[in-house]
Write a structure and sequence with these properties.
203 residues; alpha/beta; 8 helices; dTMP kinase activity; Thymidylate_kinase
């Protein structure tokens, strides 16, 4: 099976985790060797930076620099080697999250994020991004029922609506790789949407 890079995106509480596991099973059943990973994180260094990112106060530029430093290490140590070996990488978040959270959410200059993207990634973008889209209010209710909030999850609804709008802007700019998933519906209905996307691509 051809190596592919697939990312899952969406505001906190969108319900990505269940479907990452299901997609991994689907791809594995079709002969793919799948590497599951996440951002921030994915390597020992990046996981250390993740802890700082989620639980230490800092400004938006510091957040972005930490994330892109971790992303560079993640690309070099995990993502690029896996793809070069013909494996499929399924990643919970990638650069779209930086544009949505630090850019749209925090109000950071998008030109700075674009420069960091160019420096760090050498053009590496996902082959497919599954964007789990749902209203901020619904996401907040799900988060409250599931876990204690981290530094980002404690943000107000207006913040998450800005993040959602940031994802919409990224999707509009790259319609060939984005697939919008209506994450407000049941788990089964979300799974059906993902299945339809994969079938449409012959995956």
């Amino acid at each position: 099976m051809t190596a592919r890079f697939i990312t899952f995106e969406g505001i906190d509480g969108a319900g990505k985790s269940t479907h990452i596991a299901a997609l991994t099973e689907r791809l594995s059943a079709r002969g793919a060797v799948v590497v599951n990973t996440r951002e921030p994180g994915g390597t020992e260094l990046a996981e250390t930076l993740r802890g700082l990112f989620l639980h230490s106060g800092m400004d938006s530029l510091t957040e972005a620099l930490l994330v892109f430093a971790g992303r560079r290490d993640h690309l070099q140590r995990v993502i690029e080697p896996a793809l070069a070996a013909g494996q499929t990488v399924v990643c919970d978040r990638y650069t779209d999250a930086s544009f949505a959270y630090q850019g749209a959410g925090r109000g950071m200059d998008l030109a700075v994020l674009t420069t960091l993207e160019q420096w760090v990634q050498n053009g590496r973008q996902p082959d497919l991004t599954l964007w789990f889209d749902l209203p901020a209010e619904m996401a907040a209710a799900r988060r409250a029922a599931a876990r204690e909030a981290d530094r980002f999850e404690q943000q107000d609804l207006e913040f998450f609506e800005r993040v959602r709008a940031g994802y919409a802007a990224r999707a509009a700019g790259a319609p060939q790789r984005f697939a919008r998933i209506d994450a407000s519906v049941s788990v089964a209905e979300v799974a059906a949407q993902i299945s339809a996307v994969m079938e449409s691509r012959g995956w």
